[in-house]
Design a protein that fits this description.
- This protein is mainly alpha-helical.
- It folds into 2 domains: 117 residues, no CATH class; 78 residues, Winged helix-like DNA-binding domain superfamily/Winged helix DNA-binding domain (Arc Repressor Mutant, subunit A, Orthogonal Bundle), CATH 1.10.10.
- The protein contains 8 helices and 3 strands; from the N terminus they run H-H-H-H-H-H-E-H-E-E-H.
- Strands 1-3-2 form a 3-stranded antiparallel beta sheet.
- Helix 1 packs across helix 2.
- About 3% of the residues have low confidence.
């Protein structure tokens, strides 16, 4: 009989639990407190979001469950609640809530891959990346080197722009080439992609 496999997440929790338990005198109490608090916080995030979704959809005509592909819809909801459990930023929790409302307000049927990709990007995108992305939405054909934010290292901004490209939210084309001197390099002209515009409409508005 095969032994049931333990997920990486369960293994980590076992390691954390064992580590806390090993702390002299307070280990047992600390482990109970930590895992109890952790589970409570996760439960509260999901409960709060579901309640807000229910309240905000009151009076809005939404498609019947028969108009959705039920397997696809349930899969997205399952993945969404898993990500929501772990998300600690309130700003991201609100974005997950908007995503949840939108997969209910319009049928999930034939658009599963796109909606799954939206959810994957939503999980990875950071507040700084969202800020840069929204700036690009408001300003067309921006040169990457012109994007600056007081108090933020320029290399972090450039890295965030590259991540937006990797997500498929932004297209970059060569703006110019400079050889030699302090301005040497290839500044890139940035434009929000069609996928990026759809992502904004579905997840950020």
């Amino acid at each position: 009989m095969e032994k049931e496999k333990i997920s990486a997440k369960d293994k980590l929790e076992l390691v954390v639990n064992a580590g806390l338990q090993a702390i002299p005198y307070v280990g047992g109490s600390l482990a109970t407190l930590y895992f109890g608090y952790k589970q409570e916080q996760r439960f509260q995030r999901v409960e709060k979001t579901l309640k807000e979704v229910a309240d905000e959809l009151q009076g809005i005509q939404i498609p019947s469950i028969e108009q959705h592909n039920k397997d696809e819809l349930i899969t997205l909801i399952n993945e969404l609640t898993d990500k929501l459990e772990k998300e600690q930023l309130e700003s991201k929790r609100i974005l997950y809530k908007e995503y949840f409302k939108n997969i209910l307000k319009t049928p999930t049927n034939g658009n599963y891959e796109e909606r799954k990709l939206f959810l994957e990007v939503l999980e990875k995108i950071t507040p700084l990346q969202i800020e840069i992305f929204q700036y690009l939405l408001a300003n067309d054909n921006v040169v990457d080197l012109s994007i600056q934010k007081p108090g933020t290292d320029q290399s972090l901004i450039q890295s965030s722009i590259l991540q937006l490209e990797n997500y498929g939210l932004v297209n970059a084309t060569i703006h110019s080439i400079s050889l030699g001197g302090s301005n040497a390099g290839m500044p890139m002209s940035l434009k929000v992609s069609q996928f990026g515009k759809k992502f904004n409409e579905f997840c950020l508005k």
